[in-house]
Queue: 4 jobs
Job 1
Amino acid sequence: MTGHSQVVDAAFYSPDGARIATHSLDGNLRLWDSTSMEELFSLDGVAVPGGFTADGAQLIFSKPDASLWRLDIGARRSAQVGSAGGRLIGVSPDGRHVVIFGADQLPSLRPLDEKPSPGEVKDVPVDTTVVMSADGRRAAVAGRIYHGIVVVDLAEHRQIAALMDARPVTGLAISPDGERLVSAGFDGVLKVWNVDRGEQERSLKAFLDPVWGMAFSRDGRSFAAGGNNRTVRIWNAASWIEGDSYLGHSSTIRSVAFSPDGRRMVSGSEDEQALVWPVGWRPLPTEMPQLLRGPQWIDRTPGIAFSSDSRRFAGTAADGTIKVWRTDTIECLATYPEEARTVAFSPDGKSVLGEGFDGIVQRWMLDGSEAQPANRPKARFANWQVDPLTPQERVTLVAEQSETRAMCQLCEISSARDGIFAGAMLSTPTIAMSLDGQTMYVGLPQGGVEVWSVATRQRLLAFTAHKLGVSALAVSPDGRYLATGSLDNSTVLWEAATGQKVATFFAHNRPVWALAFSPDGQTLAAGSCDKQIILCSVPLRRHVASLSLYTGVPKNYEQEVRLLRFSPDGNILAAGLGDGTLRFFRAAPFSETDARDAGKKSSPL
């Protein structure tokens, strides 16, 4: 989520999870729809965003003069409700009380409309760190004047614990029930405290750099932290085993917060952005050797397709059949006796389509009923592109080469109709279809790209993309961008409508064989035979992560990346290797995705 022009120092969800609030150091408050990531509106002059009321309909904040204001989100109007008389810390769950610094420089609970007493302090030292529990019962504060960490019972306004952390404390997080507290410092170490006993339970060397943003999930089961190293990490708050690691920010992370259901997390950074991440704990399989078609086949590129709910995937199995597996356990759910070139799920999810090496398309019903009659094309085809299958069950094919030319043809499975003739001399081109099935892209062996209209059967655009042949193509889900990979080792991002170059990524040192956009269009994955899968941020226009495939020297290029596929929910990046191995990676999204499954770090799950 972009729009701020200063450091994003706060980001948090509304109680119902429908909205996200972000705040930057220039006093700008922005509200976002948590599903679409669209900005709802912004407000300037906000000193401290206290928080949402329990119904999520209002947000309490303070202005630089310490006045308290209530923002009506539906009406998009704000009105003054009182004066804090000091620094605002937060809002109680009932929305009728605020927590401010009292005269004794400790957090104090006070009715929202109550006037401050003359003795209340106006400010606190700048190095003071303060946090309150989600249930509104407790608050903790640390800083130079406290000589450690002080925990306060807000209802009784009394100190209940003094935790002796001798370091300058850069971040605090308190569990929802107020019983556990985590402190962080410039050394990157997280210290976990038992508040009731006043004892340190454990110490985690989580980072090598200062930690600033930390948070517990609403149920207290997960814990997240981020700081100078630009990475957000998650731990199981019971065992303190490290889980996911999220890399996407280009600068220091200042704040993190979980959604109410714990399935998503938002982080704010000095790069002036807020990023939303999927969160989950169920691990996925790491590596499935020889699961797919491998080097014993003339065509070493396997076929993989995910179902629309991401819970199943189909593939061209190593034994020469089509198989359907569960994504989470790799349990084989169905086997169909066909030596397929590639596979796809039908748009309604009720069948699997497989195309044999003879060009015949067969439909297999997932409910176990008999296979549907085969569709025989008018010609034999050398390549069949079916991922994703368009709503019209329309696919593109490369016809068998003649003496002088290879032709791209369009086919609708139901009618075996063809009609687009494009291509290049002597060598088979690379092809891709837009998600809506209206545009076909052809990558030529000479390095050019052709864009064809499916409706009119006319060529819309032709441009030179690379000096060497185009070896991979991918179209963003919204059809805005086209990515090309080449034998010249580069990956280039283009405006699909104009052929205007947007960005060039020189992260590989071998030809690029596979490309894939994430479902939200924010991430581009590129695969080669150089031991790496590269993840590039589309909005940032730069390479942000590398996924290592193996160590040592590859054997006969069997470990080259032949195919990349994101699952529809955006949580999995599947890589099909030349030796038939399938590897699942934890995807690294740059915006909202649903999270049923999540793995460990930016590496194989």
Note: The chain is about 0% helix and 50% strand.
Job 2
Amino acid sequence: MGIFDIFKKGRQDLSNSKNTGALSTDKAIALHPDLEGLVWIADGKHKNYSPGKETYLDLGHGIKMPIPFSVEPSVISLKLPIQKPVNQSDIPKMPYYPSYAGIDPLQRWAYWEFLRNPYNSTDIGYVFTLYYGLERHLLIGDFEKAFDVILKLRNFHKNNSFLWYSSTALILSCIQRKSPDHLGKYLLSIDDTQISTINISLFLLCLHTFGLELTPRHIMYFAKGFAFENNRYIKNHPDIFASELEKTLLEINKTGIIDLQNLVKNFRNTKSCAFTPFANPSLRNKENDVTIPDLTTDIKLTSLCHNALNTAHERTKMRLKGMPKEKNQNSVKSEKIKAEIIMDNSSISEELKAMECDLLKAEKNAKNVIDLHFRYLPIIDFAYKNRNYNYYLDLCIKYCQKDIDIFPKFRTAYWDDMINGSQKLREHEAHMESLGVVRSEHAQEQRRKHVEHWETLKAENRLDIRIPAFQRLAMILDEQGDIEGAICVCKLALSYNLTDGTKGGFEGRIAKLKKKLK
């Protein structure tokens, strides 16, 4: 009998069960086939988990990061009860730092439902609970299978925090395992929208470690890392810009690429940068961070890339000026306008209609204003990506406006949820301590800092999370020529002390929009 045979015998559909009381985890709950062998079990004859001894993550170049391997938050105790809710709305929102032992029986039931299909839209807390255990597998478990499952999860769960942590962990594991092949698999899986979730310093170190070249596309995507801020042509004319950048690099070194190992022979002239490498708190050391050389601070590398980007920018400008007016309509905006004319509602595929239907159904099941906001996000994201159809353009505008309308209530509820959720978790930890299960001092300190952080944000009337509805609506209004409307949306976002994730923020966006009015 395999470890997960316990979950295969007599598969019980909890969603149809009439029993609303406590359910035993031993009652055969099915796992998605992708997860077999990846879920950590704490007890019983199927136990496959032990805390592990402290070790080091070797990144080469003399960089070693201690890994404590303290209590795994995703580990499942078969002794803990689960309970099917009478109504889905009875299930509380997952805490900020989820753990299987720390959530209540209703949430455990929902987590097991999630494990049946981890690719369904859900509270991101369930995704992180599973992901914690996958990070551990990257280091000391089934690396191959965990790597592939994480890549697949990234296609379905677009939470920026999840994408950032998983990107970092995947790159780190490639370095640790000395596997450029897995790095290639990761790079093939990402798209342009995920570039902002990649740690450029870690990415460059990884390329350097494996002796891989820095390509024109890499330089273009990470232009801000090389102190190049004017991304107008990169955004609107990426193919032309890439072509001009490649020509520029060919003139510099006759290869059109940058050999990092040859250009940066050592790290004496680079500064260091620190970052938190893992989402899983049991894999973090006391300092939380790992420190690596930051190749973007190497003067030779940054100067070369910055100058090449500047030259490509000017050449792209001249090339566009020299085009006949009709051909100069190859920009992203004009292509969108053409597509909107061509793609009427009758051409929408059945697959898109089905996805839309699933997303709109999820909206109806929202339990509170926080849940409603997080159910709006995938609808806005889906509609925005498909706005070349007039129907989805209108749908995106509609849901951006709905999300903006509920924002004041969402903000107040989210502050309180972050503060109260952590306080409840501390009460749970106090109870566990009375039973002899003690969290590390580091974990307790992290919890205290988390509460203080959110109390400070509430006092300052701020949120440190992005609300995409404001930015998306402003961009759409700008594309439609409603510049004054776009400015109003940006000003409203500023009145809530929000940021759009760019260096200039909404202030910079307003300044650019005002120039268009002149």
Note: The chain has a mean pLDDT of 80.
Job 3
Amino acid sequence: MQADPLALRWPAMTLRVNWKTWGQVLTVAAIAAACEGSSGGPAVKTEPKAGPVDVPGPTPGSGGEAGAPVEPKVEPKVEPKVEPVVGTLDDRSVQSEQEGPWTRRRVGGEPGAGDLGGFGMVGRGEGGSGSGYGGIGSAGSIGSIGRGGSIGSPAASPSVSRPAPAEMEDSAADMAMPRKSSKPLTPGGPGLKDPFAGNVKESAPLKAGATDDNADYASYLRFLASWTGREDVRGQFQPLDVAGRAFVQVLDGDGQPVPGARIEIFGAGPGATMWQATTYGDGRAPYYPRLFGAQEKPSPMIVRATAGGQTVEASWDGTKELTLRTAGPRAAGPMTLEVLFLIDTTGSMGDEIDQIKTSLLAVTSKAKARREDLVLRYGAVLYRDLNDDYLTMAHPFTEDLQAFNSALQGVSAGGGGDLPEALNQGLERAVEGMQWQADAAKVVFLICDAPPQMRVKGDVLYGDSALRAVGKGLRIHSVAASGLDPLGTLVLRQVAQLTRGKFIFIEYGGTQASAARHGVGGAVQGGNNLDDILLAQITAEIDGWGR
């Protein structure tokens, strides 16, 4: 497929957004492919392999002795289809293999001997601004992480910031990873379980609460000002400055919202793309002028919206909401809704996994009843940790919801042990590694109880993946399972707010006490079963699409 010419203008955006990872840079072709909804990764050439050859035994009349017994045919054992290396993490190869409908990625090999020396300091980077929340400015860009005392390569440009180099102490205490704590047992809560088998012996519906950090935006900014100054999160998160948020809305000729419109914001120079997004169901897309640190903003900027073969442009100062109108009404047709379940499947997640497995079909039935012309597609990305039996497992989107449910029933909790998990790798695969349909409503449920590993060479950090999700119009609802620490809370609320999703949390000890543990000070919808809250987000997407 020929790349969209507009997508080839992404290099300017690449420098601002830091599509650069710890050890590699996305190519222009890969970014263009991502804009078209593909996985964004380069095609991997595979060499043909010789298949197993069956040697038949002697049969009557074939020259063997009359009446001789016939040797039974032995079917060859079907092994998982192993693909070539698809990348590296911490200088270890990442391989992919097919197992039924699932595609498994695992990290092979062993870390280099330099691991004994700990993390080396990073290369020099650009300085960041000092106007962030609570006195913490946006961190400057940094070089690639060195291992065992090596020196990283210098970063080329400002970026969605990584933890500041000065905050990444190279000490034994800093490198020691805390282990996950067991989940509390409260009346009406989940029962005792084998934490490494996902085998719930006695269970009850999980209660959950939810808050909308975009609806209560001022309260969310206060949360950032307070939470990012905590010692227990210092140097471990991306300081995503979302202050000054503004919206671009696209309406059709009848004044109705146009979802799925492609938004591009240009600076003064030709082809200088500053921002790219896709409108959500209400026809609106966010713009965050300070996300990449303090920078001079051209005035006016040019905003271009493309939808249904029409393109409209307007000048904008980036402050008040801008409304663009297309010439005619939006074309009528069925609605496609793609729902992806992004699940931490490490050992402490058995309760949440079982809740989804037992309630999925009931949620599906209620969702399909909301709209007769709804085309509902499910997909999943599971993740664990670098040293587990898999890093990620992906199930492609499918309209065969019964088959998807059957595949999901085989999922269980296991592995893990230390606190941070492969959330970064799971989120990157969800955003870039799934075949999202361009004109569909796109919803992700990120369900986890641990923060991401933030010091893995070669990965894509959560803030970069969330920014790409905005570019594709993905709405990510973050679900905090019990035991999530303050860093995990910060990361999940950042991801949900940036992508216009909800922050959902499992309740232990009541709605308000649970909300307070996650720093939620605004309005809370609480006391509902988890499956009811998930259904509410799906039905809200259906009911609000283009309305």
Note: Residues 1-70, 111-159, 164-179, 181-202 have pLDDT under 50 and may be disordered.
Job 4
Amino acid sequence: MTRDRTQQMKKPLTAAVLVLVCAGPLGAADWPMWRYDAARSAASPHALPTNLTLLWSRQLPPVRPAWPLAQDQRSDFDASYEPVVLGRRLFLGSPNDGSVTAYDLASGEELWKFYTEGPVRCAPACWKGKVYVGSDDGYLYCLDAERGNVLWKFRGAPAERPERWHLGNGHLVSFWPVRGGPVVLDGAVYFGAGIWAILGVFIHALNAETGAVLWSNGGLNRIANVRIDHDFLRESGLSPQGCFAAVRDRLIVPCGRAMPAGLELGTGRLIYWTQGYYGQGASRVAAHGEYAFVGQHAVVNLHDFREVGSKWAYRGTNAPEGYAERYAQSLHVPPDLANLEGDWPEQLPSYYGAVASLDENLGRVLRELERLAMDESTVVLFCSDHGCHFRTRNQEYKRSCHESSIRIPVVWQGPGFDHGLVVNELVTLLDCHATLLRAAGVPEEELGRGRDITSIFWEEREEWPREVFIQISESQVGRAIRTPRWKFGVNAPDCDGWRTPAASRYVAQYLYDLYADPHELNNLACQPEFAEVREELAATLLRCMAAAGEDSAEIVPEAIPDAD
């Protein structure tokens, strides 16, 4: 078969043609599940013939996936047809019409076709003359491989829950579709039903021969203290989507775009699950040795299901033990926080504790460099990518143009950074990048947009930019400019910050005089006496946008109500 995901798990089959190739008589080797076996290894012990010859082909309609608007390939578990082979039959499930079709492996003749009541999103699994098929109608079917009749079927949702249906991609689908694709190991078949935690999620282990329940876990839709994106701990739940994998005593449950969950194979007890960080999860998983490989970007160990090499995997809920307590009784609250509502009363002690711990550990790194006599030949940079306003400016912790979001901690140490000096120039992360490159010997003309900041350390300083350009996404489509005195910000109120990178029309949102109002508590954007300042800053902002490669846009002066 021309279906090889051994090298690239992410790449879907986009052609609508199924091709079988073989040379001479067909061998007895099976391919009973997606990627061959329960571990999803994609490795068969049977060798292919040296010369392959086309036997037959079939034209199939393009697949209609469950998530056609997904912008990445992390939830593409049904992006292509996934044939499996048992004996002298090839079996193919269809996401389009909910059918399972058996073809003669030698001739391509259709032997039988069985229709479920919903799309078949994941590849069937075969075992001892049986074909196991999960459907969006909420059932797992066990079919006779020879004739296609139903031997038994099992509803994923509990019996006490009445049948409920809703529209999904042109189909009526169950509230609890089977998109946790079946896997068979040691006489048991495992699958998952339900994708919306609020409606219920159910993982089952059944006797593969009889369909009798070995165990069921219906408590995975409400899990306390799940580490979600941006390192928050929240109640969350699994969304089984993708072909399950099983190896030794572990069941691996892919959860669409999130990280896979780990369950005990024999009991169904949850070992660990995290939603994942910054796009690491995926619906395609495969296991080998002590690890499970998740899409293109992540690896989890099968011992405790933490992500290998992740800086988040073993974090606690707050600052290291004892650090937050140092600041709980003598808490300094910056005026921009003290005058605004947010969650800083709960979070600020841990924030200060984390800063103290980072500072101490940076000191450990610098002392170790000194011990190794590397301190005079090593440039060290510590920084963050944004600040934190503790939900005082919007409903998250960053993505605003305010000082608490855009000012970051920076520590430099090493050659060229070994004397005290106060500089007032505005420095950006682009400049930090350029400075590191320059320290490594990269020519100045190859530094990109940033500038080497060591050039402003001396009395004869070169001319330095007088403004910093800020782009804001997700929370809004926003732009801002910061000068030594002024902060001017705009946004596109009619655009979705998660889907639209830029706009053609922006509305003035903020204007702050940082000399008179360093904590940005008095928004001057709609004050007529500052119209000239606003127009000048708007012109500068448009020039910065153009220099960054953005399309032309306009800025209108009306301020958004309640912009503070």
Note: The chain has three domains: 17-301, 318-421, 465-564.
